[in-house]
Structure formats: C-alpha cells, structure tokens
From TrEMBL:
Keyword Cytoplasm: yes
Provenance organism: Serinus canaria
Subcellular location: Cytoplasm, Cytoskeleton, Microtubule organizing center, Centrosome, Centriole
Family: Belongs to the CEP76 family.
Pfam families: CEP76-C2, CEP76_C, CEP76_N, CEPT76_peptidase
Domain CEP76 N-terminal: 10-69
Function: Centrosomal protein involved in regulation of centriole duplication. Required to limit centriole duplication to once per cell cycle by preventing centriole reduplication.
Protein name: Centrosomal protein of 76 kDa
Length: 662
C-alpha cells in the first residue's frame, strides 16, 4: 500500500504526537536512571552503549518501543532531506532525545533545553490557534560567547509551548581557549552569561521586546550528574522592568559529563566575589563621575543645562556608563565599507521606547545590542551606538554625539575625526553624511560663512568605548563648535583608566558581551518576485473596481530594475551611476506619441498590502495606478536588497506608458 507524500507526512505526525503523549522517551530515561543507580558500582561511571542496551532489554522496554523509535527516526532522516511541512500543526515538534548533531568529543558543551513556559498572564485569554491560522508568536534569541541561536516561533499563550534545545560551545578556539579540554574549575572562571531575549511578533509582522535576561549557567558545575533544572522568571522591559511577564523552564546539561563536579559552596563563593568586585568598581567609577561633574559645573554655570550623558538605562532599567554601549565591532564579510554599514543602520527600523500614559515625555531606554538586533528596530541611541561600533571596527576614530535637533529635541548621532582634521557627522537613522565646517563668531559681519546642512543644533558630549568628552566651549551650538579634542579648554575629558575599569570587555560582570552580526536569511530574488506578484494582483483588483482593464508590460517592468539598482547604489555610496542607460532604454521602449510616467518609492518592510496602501496616498503614484487613456500599459518592479540581520531595503517603481490623446 502506497500513500501520497502529504498523507504519509500527516500520518507520521499523528504517530509522533501519540508517542509524545505516551511519554515513551521519558519512561526510557527513568529506567536508565534507575538501572544506573541500582545495578552499577560507583567506580564504573563511564557507561558503554552495550551496558545501556542490556539494561533496557532486561526491563523489556526495547521490545515495546523499537518499532516506534525506528519509525520516528526514519521520519527524522527523511526530514533532513525533504523537510515535509506539517499539515495540521503550527510547529513541527520533535522529541529532543532524537535530535542529532555533530559534537567534537574534545570540546566542552552546555546543552540548554527550554521545556515550556508558564504564567505569561498577559496571554491568559489567548484563544487556541486553528490549523493554518496566522497568530502572534514568541521567539527566544540567545547569545553566548560569540554564538547566536534562535528558537522556533511558538504561538503566544499563557503556557507557551517552547520545546527547543541549544548546544552552546563553552570552549572555543576563536576566543583563545586553546585546544585542551577544560575542567570545572576553569569553567567557573568563565563569567560570560547566556543572554536570552524574548521577542513577540504580531500578526502583521511587527516585533516587540518582551524580556531580556542574563542566565547564570555555572550552577550546573555543582549539579549532581552535571544536570540541573531552573525556573527563570522573566521581567518586563522599560517602565515594566519590575513586573514579571512569565517563567521559562530550563534544563542545563554538560557534555561530555564532568568527571568531577564542584561543591555548591565553591560556586556561590565565586559568584559572591564577582558581585563584590563589580560593585566596588562601579562604586569607584560613580565617585569619580560625581567629582568630574562637579568640576564641569564649576567651569560655567550654564553647563547644568547641557546634554552631558554619563549614564544611561538599558532595557532592564539598569544604569550603565554610556561608554559600555559602544565597542569596536567587526562585521566579517557581511559589510565591506563604513558607508555600507551606515546604509545597513538606516534600514533598521526606528521606534521610540513605548510610554504608558500621556505627557509627551520621552522614555529613555538604551537597548543592549542583542535586544536591538533581535527586534530589528530601536531608538536613535541604539542606531548611533551600533554605527559607532561598526565604524570603530573599520578603523575610524568614531564617537557618539549627544545633543539636540531642531526645537530642542534630544538626539544622538555619530561623528568621525579624519587624520587630516576633517570632522564628518553620520546620521544613523538615514545614512546621510555631513562635513562639519565651523563658523567663526569673531569673523567680520560681511565675511562669508559656511551654511550648515546638518539638522543638529547643540552638542553636549561625545564618547566611544574608551573616551568621554564634555563640551565646555562658550556655546554648545554645533555650528560654532571646534572639535579639537586635545584642547581641554574646549573639551573636558574623563580619565581613560576610569572608563576602562568599568567599560572594557570583561571588566565587570554587568557589561554584556557584544554578539556578532548574523547573515541575512532573506532570499532577495525570491522575496522580490513574491512582492511583485502580490502588487500586480492588488493593482489589477484596484483598477477592476474602477472599471479599468489592466495590461502588464513585462519588458518595461524589467527595464525599471536599472533605476532601482542605481537608487540603492546612490544611497550606499553617495554616487549616482547608470542613469543615462536607463533613460535611453526607456526612450527606446516608449513609442513616439506615447507618454511614460514612473514613480519610485523606498520601504524597509516587506508587506505588500502596506506598500500598496502607502503608494495610493501619493497623488503621483495614484495617477499611474489609475491611469486612463489609449493603449495603457502598466509596469511594476520590486527590488529587495538584503543586509545583515535580515534587514532589507525595498525599492519599488510603478510605471505606465500610454498614447497621448489631446
């Protein structure tokens, strides 16, 4: 009897779920634990495969479940090649015991399993999602020692069904750990936490930061059998940083198992010493910062009103020195130039931290880098911190500037100092660059002064990962500021040693390590085609409602690609190229007596319906989409440019050609 592939896949899913309900794998684990405890001598802790199989056979378990286990394994093998999609389930769940991965036996690993969540009370009334229904989802993102992981999305619920395992490599060559197997004592000195960020994605694809948590994993070093279970209470972010949002059940396990575990007294003593050391460093820096601020105020009383930002709150409401939010960051082969980095930042979404209630006040929230990247959007401070980090990685002398824009709105941007003294401002929200030429207020009135093109009005301080300067010039207006950072009468510096004591990597346990950037998972060509097809359908339906027929010109659509590529190149490099060829191609494609109209537009999301609604609000675009005339031919071209972290620049051009009838 042969079944169609989709039916076979559905049948296997049902059997698979039945095995999970019976908890067959849990029974096997219980029998193994009991056998090891009762029948094996303490000195024989290293079990062979034969020992385990013999123990199972004696209990009669193998005869009961061999067929089922073999069947599921077959499905697993098939999944690796054809990856059938489940037809009746939102998430394709597989028992963690059957997952296989290549493990280097000479390395030390931490296996972190997320075994469900509970008490997510905000979703208490969330209805059970129907098969195939689009619903809001939770996604858990992890970072540990330069490794990043992302869970499968699960439907939002009071008890979200997280069933994921992550194999974290504790021992890595790239971090200078050498090639020997580390023991428990050495691992105890590795104070990097597992940073966990919980993201909610709604039905429209909008992301929200739910929680950010630093997991202390080293408790497993003192656990019996090298396995421990912890219930992690997640707290909210921003104004809700003291409110519980839910609990995750987490299981930690060492691979290979430790020959010798530590006592709980040793681990707790280590944690206490680290906390005390961090607290003392932070206390000394706070004393120094207060002294620096007093000296700064004594220079000029008006300094009290300047935007000199020494500390900033992260998403968990923790006050940290601003210099700890910046660090030289290399993008590997994901970004090639500083200008490409600026373009990447400009296509990440801009969103202010949410405020509950009115008043118009701005909620301060400087996100950690992982929270910013996982959400793919943030405030101007998040953009500026990341851009400054990338420019430092490219070898430039870069600083984050804190000041104001028009109407006194607080703002941050990035500044680079050239070796020839050229000062360049980089707007991280748009990717624009501005050369700063200061106005000399002592020049005679008729002397020609440079007209500033940048939107910045005042500047209070600048900083990077190892320097901090407060602006102590008579005026804090950007247009008259001189950026001679060696002149202490213009810029009051902080002690580099003081900054280093709390902001250098590994200086304190409260400064989170920076995660690496991830390559895009978006297939630009496939996404471009999908959006184009959707837009064609939307345009045809809209014209049909107006009583108009729609004829598409594929060749004209193809020609528009040249313009879209040129637009993105210009946004990235500031250089315009290829316009002559595009104009010539259009002239050849549009016959005499016909009119051509085109409308390009840029987005940073991939939602075709939102794109179409936005375009219809433009009278120029609506004129093209609703074009009436003789021999009307329509064209639309979508070009998606993928950047790291699956950020996208989406260029779209609508066009039409028709015979002019007077």
């Amino acid at each position: 009897m042969s079944l169609p592939p989709e039916k076979a896949s559905e049948l296997k899913q049902i059997i698979h779920q039945q095995l999970l309900k019976m908890d067959v794998h849990g029974r096997i684990r219980e029998v193994l634990a009991e056998t090891i405890r009762e029948e094996l001598a303490p000195e024989h802790q290293q079990l062979s495969t034969e020992d385990l199989i013999r123990a199972l056979r004696q209990r009669g378990i193998i005869d009961d479940v061999m067929k089922e286990l073999k069947f599921v394994t077959d499905m697993n093998e098939m999944g690796r090649t054809s990856a059938p999609k489940p037809s009746t389930h939102f998430v394709d769940r597989e028992p963690p015991v059957l997952k296989k991965t290549n493990i280097d036996p000479t390395r030390r690993y931490l296996y972190l399993q997320v075994l469900g969540g509970k008490a997510f009370l905000e979703h208490l009334q969330e209805p059970e999602p129907l098969p195939g229904q689009i619903c809001s989802t939770f996604t858990l993102c992890l970072h540990f020692r330069n490794q990043r992981f992302r869970s499968k999305p699960v439907p939002c619920a009071c008890e979200p069904d997280f069933q994921d395992g992550f194999l974290l490599e504790i021992h890595k060559d790239s971090l200078g750990d050498g090639s020997k197997m580390v023991d428990a004592t050495t691992m105890l000195s590795i104070c990097d936490p597992v940073h966990m960020v919980l993201i909610k994605t709604d039905t429209f694809g909008e992301t929200t930061l739910v929680a950010s948590y630093f997991l202390e994993w080293r408790s497993v070093l003192a656990a019996e059998n090298g396995i421990t279970n912890v219930a992690v209470e997640l707290l909210g972010v921003g104004t809700e940083s003291k409110v519980s949002v839910g609990v995750l059940n987490i299981r930690l396990e060492m691979y290979p198992p430790l020959n010798k575990t530590l006592s709980s007294e040793i681990t707790s003593t280590q944690f206490t010493l680290e906390r005390q050391k961090t607290a003392e460093k932070e206390r000394l820096f706070l004393v120094y910062a207060k002294q620096w601020w007093r000296e700064y105020l004594q220079i000029r009383p008006t300094h009290n009103t300047r935007l000199v930002k020494i500390f900033a709150q992260d998403e968990n409401g923790v006050n940290r020195p601003v210099c700890s939010y910046v660090r030289p960051l290399r993008a590997g082969r994901l970004l090639d130039t500083p200008r490409q980095a600026a373009r990447f930042l400009s296509v990440l979404g801009h969103e202010r931290a949410p405020v509950i209630g009115g008043g118009g006040g701005k909620q301060e929230q400087w996100c950690t880098l992982l929270a910013f990247l996982c959400r793919n959007k943030g405030d101007c401070e998040d953009h500026a911190n990341l851009l400054c980090s990338l420019l430092l990685g490219f070898g430039l002398e870069a600083f984050v500037c804190v000041g104001t824009k028009a109407k006194g709105v607080p703002h941050t941007w990035v500044m680079t100092c050239g070796s020839d003294g050229t000062i360049t401002f980089w707007e991280s929200l748009t990717g624009h660059r501005y050369i700063h030429r200061p106005i000399n207020p002592d020049d005679p009135p008729l002397a020609e002064q440079p007209k500033p093109l940048y939107p910045y009005r005042t500047i209070g301080c600048i900083f990077n990962h190892e320097k901090f300067f407060g602006n102590c010039q008579p005026s804090d207006a950007v247009e008259v500021c001189v950026f001679d950072l060696h002149d202490e009468s213009k810029w009051k510096p902080m002690s580099r040693e003081a900054i280093k004591s709390v902001c250098a990597p590994g200086a304190t346990s409260s400064v989170p390590p920076f995660p690496p950037l991830c390559a895009s998972t978006v297939d630009a060509a496939v996404t471009s085609n999908e959006m184009e097809v959707q837009l064609r359908i939307l345009v045809s339906e809209h014209r049909k409602d107006l009583g108009l027929s729609t004829v598409w010109d594929d060749q004209l659509s193809y020609l528009l690609s040249q313009a879209l590529a040129a637009y993105e190149l210009e946004r990235t490099t500031g250089v315009s190229a290829g316009n002559e060829e595009f104009q010539d191609a259009v002239r050849r494609a549009v016959p005499d007596g016909h009119t051509f109209k085109g409308f390009p537009i840029h987005f940073v999301h991939r939602n075709a319906r939102r794109v179409f609604a936005t375009c219809l609000r433009s009278p120029f675009c609506e004129e093209i989409i609703c074009c009436r005339g003789d021999q009307v031919r329509l064209a639309v071209r979508v070009r998606v440019f993928a950047y790291p972290e699956s950020a996208c620049a989406v260029w779209i051009m609508f066009a039409c050609k028709y015979r002019s009838v007077l």
